[in-house]
């Protein structure tokens, strides 16, 4: 895989495959957050699933993404009582896992709301060798 | 419908139902443009259809949207020759039609690239009475 | 002004100048909401003012915008106690007023959080003749 | 610095400070791309500088960002001949450098358009020890 990477020469020579897999995981998580936050959403299951699928498939197009799981936890009372009964997608709705692979390294990165931090954290959950 | 509109009192009293339908159409088109531009996209049909569906369903949640049609015209050569063979969704990819209804007025608004203007135009195509 | 509008022929012939000014106001408000929601923000005054100015200037570039006022009401406790002491711009932070003019019509459109609706409302506040 | 990091326990224990600095650089670059792409822009110098400053200041609020440089290369002919004489910010306009520091590691990450790849690349330019 590394042999085919036309971008490799732009990266610092000290960078390891593991570091590159970490880099690409972070790019993926941050792109999901800043791209889709603000999208109109409600408790409508079809709308939620359509958005989860669109996020998943678009993120998989980015370099070195091997697997993407997207769960949107839409809470709140949206009983469609009037025309304004929906809201915008917020960071805390995201429950995302991205697996990236580069060379012999596989990295699992996550994004989810951490209640004790009151913060939507992006972090690296797992680092593995694939050989 | 107007009777149930909890936001009506915030709008200027001179505003007609037809004007309100026009207003809501413009909100919808502009939300699609600025929300989804930048999303990773390629010639992958499944990814395109998933994004079209997500845009359609999320926009329908907004007030007074009756119908939303989204066609993404992804051109360019993306033969998946390497990891970087995709691009970001651009304004010129959009071919969107939104039908809004308020009171007795139905308005059809569109967004599409106009080659002679080199511009992605949002405009009102049709204005109808529903009675 | 109308004479120079290269897009006019794409709009429905029934559309009035007043309706066009309303349309362009809605495009502006919705573009601000969906473009900038999610931007990292804190109580840092310089960062807030820089973002307000960027929103204002970019929106003024859109067609028929005559004046744009942007106030971001950033509440919450951000005392920079650690690295995670900031948040994302939310819809309820916006207090925006846009004045659009087309032909002989001037329209003032607003976006702000309405507590009783628990909703960030875009609405038309004023409709005036300029002659 | 590491001692104060309330998020550290969520990261994989194998992760080095250098890897964390790389991770945070990628988060920053990708947030800029997906947040600000689509913003109305023209050759207007004041609008360009206001947006550069807003991007810079908002990104600096994110964890472990030590320095952010943003240059928007707006090309094209925008002589304000009519109301539609502007365009949306595109990925290829970005020339961004972010310096992140974590523990004893300092990492310089960049985002810029690479003509030979026809791609807006995010990459790690420099990896340093700060001790």
Structure characterization notes:
The structure is a homotetramer of 131-residue chains. Chain A is α+β, with helices and mostly antiparallel strands and 131 residues long. Chain A has a single domain, classed as Pantoate--beta-alanine Ligase, Chain: A,domain 2 (2-Layer Sandwich). Chain A contains 2 helices and 6 strands, in the order H-E-H-E-E-E-E-E. In chain A, strand 5 and strand 6 (119-129) form a beta hairpin. The radius of gyration of chain A is 17 Å and the shape is elongated. The model of chain A has no long low-confidence stretch (mean pLDDT 94). Chains in contact: A-B, A-C, A-D, B-C, B-D, C-D. Chain A binds chain D through residues 6-7, 10-12, 14-15, 18-19, 22-31, 33-35, 114, 117, 119, 121-127, and chain D through 6-7, 10-12, 14-15, 18-19, 22-31, 33-35, 114, 117, 119, 121-127.
- CATH domain class name of chain A: Alpha Beta
Query: Could you state the oligomeric state of the chains shown?
Result: homotetramer
Question: In one word, what is the shape of chain A?
Answer: elongated
What is the CATH architecture annotation of chain A?
2-Layer Sandwich
Rg over alpha carbons of chain A: 17 Å
CATH homologous superfamily heading of chain A: 7,8-dihydroneopterin aldolase (MptD)
For the termini of chain A, the CA-CA separation is 14 Å
Total number of β-strand segments of chain A? 6
Helix content of chain A: 25-40%
Major pleated sheet of chain A? 4 strands, antiparallel
Q: If strands are numbered along the chain, what order do they take across the biggest sheet of chain A? A: 2-4-5-6
Q: Largest interface: which pair?
A: A-B, 33 and 33 residues
Classify the fold: give the CATH topology of chain A. Answer: Pantoate--beta-alanine Ligase, Chain: A,domain 2
* Count of helical regions of chain A: 2
**Mean pLDDT metric of chain A:** 94
> Element order, helices and strands of chain A?
HEHEEEEE
> How many domains make up the 3D coordinates of chain A?
1
